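Hi there, hope your week has been kind to you so far. No rush at all, and the record is pasted right below.
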Amino acid sequence: MGIGGFSVMQTHRGKVIALSLFALVALDGCANLQQKWNMLKSRRAFKQANLAYANKDYANAIELYNTTFALDPNPDPRVLVTTHFYRGSSSHLLYRPSKFDDPENDAKLEAAIKDYEKAIEFSKEHSDDFEMVKPYQQYGMEQLAAIYRDNLDDFENAERYFKALIEFDSATPERYYALADVYERFHDPEELPLLEQAIESYKKPVDLAPSDPLAYRQVANLLNKYGRFDETMDWLGKARDVQATNPEGYYLIAVHYWDKVYRDPDLTADAKKQYIELGLGQLDQALGIDDEYVDALIYKNLLLREQAKVDPRRRDELEAMANELRDRAMALREKQQEAEKAAAATSEGEEKQEPPTQPPSSH
């Protein structure tokens, strides 16, 4: 039932606000009543803005964040930082990448950039006093880095923000790979050669985790992408050596030797023979560690077939050896798959067995 045009709930909320105002005035009798009232309304707008953002109503969120600042231009630093960030994010999410000239759409991205910059600025200013605002430096830099890289094709600013992210968090390997990606994207052998910077960025995570073979393989993969075979093999060798008892390192080197022999039409017969021998040597070491390593058996079979092409006098012998390895690999794979199915069935049966809810009755 309404009272004078207001619902009971609204009247109750009005009393709560009035009591809050009274408390604020009592705490600071010199404070301006209108200012205190605006601060309360600003906090309410802030909460409503966050709710609109959570509900993906970004246009409404922007209006409410604007109201937050209009009512209280100097809010609590926690409100200040987060309002700038999420207002910027709202504008960013409303922006639609386009090749066409669209000033209204472009203005959304410009607004996002300004707010992200402000969020970073105020986060730096207040993070000593309010720890919870510190991550917004990272969040803002991540968004700006992506905008300059993906939307504005601005190499200098993209590089600047990705480097700033590394300074902010130098222990995370992904930061260096992201910077390397910028160098790759903007690399132009004639106008803007950046490949060496990308490679150096890929090497940084090796220093962070010198015993992790994956860090070395990332460098190898990048070098291989640009056809730098000898350097690729060097880095794959480093990856192998940090885990010398793991057969995978030897196997991966052999795979690259096979790929080189099989796909490079400019390779001489002598070079093919050399790479085949090197690859077979790596696979023998892998199988010495695990003689049931199916993938190693398969690639030894493939390398022997390539050897048969460059050594026709031994063709029949080499192909027979390859066939034997192929058959063994197929038999082992079938055996392993059956074991996996049996283990899965056992696990499923155990999950279906529920413990009794009560002890059995005795008669």
Q: What stands out?
A: Residues 315-352 form the longest helix (38 residues).
